[in-house]
Amino acid sequence: MITQLEQIREKAIERVRSAANLQELEQLRIKYLGKKGELTALLKNMGKLSAEERPVVGQLANSIREKLDSAMKDRTEALSREAMDLRLQEEALDVTIPGKTTELGKKHPMSIVLDETKEIFIGMGFEIAEGPEIETEYYNFTALNTKPGHPARDWQDTFYLREDSSVLLRTQTSPVQVRVMEKKKPPIRIISPGRVYRKDEVDATHSPMFHQIEGLVVDKGITMTDLKGTLVQFVGKLYGPDAKLRFRPHHFPFTEPSCEIDIMCFECRGEGCRVCKGEGWIELLGAGMVHPRVLEGCGIDTDIYSGFAFGIGVERLTMRRFSVSDMRLFFENDIRFLSQF
Ligand code: PHE
User: Fold this and answer.
1) Domain-located, residue 98
2) What is the pTM of this model?
3) What is the 3-state secondary structure (H, E, C) of 61-115?
4) In a domain, 103, yes or no
5) Separation of 259 CA from ligand 1 center, angstroms?
6) Per residue in 81-128, pLDDT tens?
7) 186 lines ligand 1 (CB under 6 A)
């Protein structure tokens, strides 16, 4: 019996020490120490032993139980510690890792200038109007007194969307003038910003897609002085008092008289350079008194009403505002450029 006990001791302690997890430990406890366990079974046979043997075996059995108990306790602790270490490792949180930040973008420089422009005109009593980028020949040309065969209608300049020229990408925001006048009776005071398209070669001041802000005022007694006053006021507010404007006579089919307005080149201050192509001035907008034929076509009585209109180039407006010497920068989406505004 003593040998049996010693065998149990060797084996049981060995197995407890190498138990892989708490379930296995529990199974071992039942196997050896449980009510039907091996050790318990042996002890039940104690009665068969002689009086001399009994205390010796009893003592041995007790010491085995104690050793097993304490081995189990040690192993339980070790296993729990291992489990905890593992969990800590798995759930480790490195508080030194930099946080994930969402980078906030910025307004595009042209949006900044467009917003400033809207503010200024709204301050002068204007409203914002909108029109489609895909236009009909009627609104883009015919209603604007631009006859068939006029060079502005040329297939080389205009992106036509139909073989018969009836639908096109608008070449100017001026068709919005007509759309507004068809719906609204004077007094009219609107600006209308938006994209326009022309088959232009790309260079520092041209792109096949660019932006304009159309302006239209129709009321009783509107004259060229109102046009001049409004634009001088606008440019002064946007650029400050030293911005110099130059009014040049020009021709547009839908205004009479017409003019182009240049701003002194911000790069060379009138000397002539690459940006202004040696001119010293940069064309900023076209304008004029709305042609009576355009007004009448929209049902406006020219005996009572007159009006002025203008179309400003937003890219050039923005170039001057921030001294940007190449328009292409606005379209390249280079963060190094855009983050400066
Ligand atoms: N639409 C003209 C252009 O694109 C500009 C303009 C607008 C001229 C309004 C006169 C009046 O060149």
Assistant:
1) no
2) 0.72
3) HHHHHHHHHHHHHHHHHHHHHHHHHHHHHHCCCCCCCCCCCCCCCCCCHHHHHHH
4) no
5) 9
6) 988 999 888 888 888 888 888 888 899 999 999 999 999 999 999 999
7) no
